[in-house]
Structure formats: C-alpha cells, structure tokens
Amino acid sequence: MKKLHFATLSLGIILAASLTACSNNEAGAPVQSANTSDSTAVASAANINIRYIDEDSISANYNLAKDFKEASIRAFSKLESAQQSRGAEIQRFGAQIEEKMRSNGYLSEASYNADVAKFQKMQQDAQNYLANLQRNTEQELAQQQAQLQDSLTSFIKEYNAKKGYDAILFKAAGVYFNPALDITNEVIEGLNARYNKVSESK
After folding, report:
1. CA angle (194, 198, 201) in 5-degree steps
2. pTM higher than 0.85 for the full model?
3. Residues with Cβ < 8 Å from 107, sequence gap 6 or more?
4. Using CA atoms, how far apart are residues 123 and 160, in angstroms rounded to an integer?
5. How far apart, in whole angstroms, are the C-alpha atoms of residue 117 and residue 95?
6. Which of 12, 20, 50, 142 lies most in the core, judged by the most C-beta atoms within 10 Å?
7. What is the pLDDT of residues 136-162, one digit of tens each?
8. Backbone phi, psi, residue 118, to 5°
9. In degrees, to the nearest 5, what angle opens at C-alpha 45 toward C-alphas 182 and 15?
C-alpha cells in the first residue's frame, strides 16, 4: 500500500519574504558593497518568521487522510479479489477443455472450437473488466489525493491569515528545523476539528 503523500504547497507568502532581499537593488538604485549586501541579506533572512509541518504525521493523524487510506485499502482489496476470482474461473474452464480433450469428450471439431472461443472471450472480458476496475480505482485515489491537498492548502491559508507567518514549510523541504518551529500538532488539531464538524452536519 502506498503511503499517501501531500504535494508541496505553493503559497505566495512562502517565497515573498526571501525574494525581497534578493530584489532590493532596483534599476537606478546605488550599488552597495558586497559586505553591505551580504549583511542585509543575512539580516532579512534572520527576520523571516518560519514554521514547519510534518506531512507524515498529518497523513497518519488527519481523520480525512485516515478515512481515505481505509477506502484505498478496500479498493485495492476489491481489485485483487476480482483478479483472483476471474483468474480462477478462466483457469478452471481451461482445465476442463484439456480434460475433455484427453478423454475424447469432444464429439466434433466444432464443439472444441466453440469452447476455445468461449475461453478466449472469458480472457478478453476479464481483461477489460479488470482494466476498467483498475482505472476507476486509480481515478478514485487521485481524487482523494487532490481533496487532501485542497483541504490542507485551504486550512493553511486560513490558519496563516491569523498567524501571519512568512513561511510554512514541509519538514522534508529542509535538512534541519528547530523543533520549536513545529506546528504539526496544532495543524492536525485544526484540520480534524474542521473535518469532524463537516461530518457531523451530514
């Protein structure tokens, strides 16, 4: 079972502050010395208010993600069961044809050809059915993934409108973050509170 992953959020506020330091030198502005420019960039970077979230923890603890994970397990189980069932049915009929041939059970070539044609049709029908089932499963999982991404993006925008952080990053986007900057639990709590309210109103 693949673990669901959230795609990296593309929030304008994430890059705005860091890019400002790099684009201060507008046309016509006096050129600063390298040392002054470096110190300005360091000062600007030091003032950026960043937080981070752990997407693995969100996938494991956000109720919507957990519900989708269970749904995907059921979908894959249904697909696997269908593959086994259709395969066994075709295999049984193929064995019947072979046994009938060995025991001279076919009274005519026409009856043999009819069974072979039926066997081939069973194979083709099974292939079409399973391909369609797999396609529907993949579409369902893609829709769930998109819904998860939309849900997280929407919540983060609302959350940050109150908090005013310059950047909210995924933990995987960096090598090291001060644990004090971790807002994962707070985000999970907010996501679940919002999701539970929606569920209760149904």
Report:
1. 140
2. no
3. none
4. 55
5. 15
6. 50
7. 999 999 999 999 999 999 999 999 999
8. -65, -40
9. 75
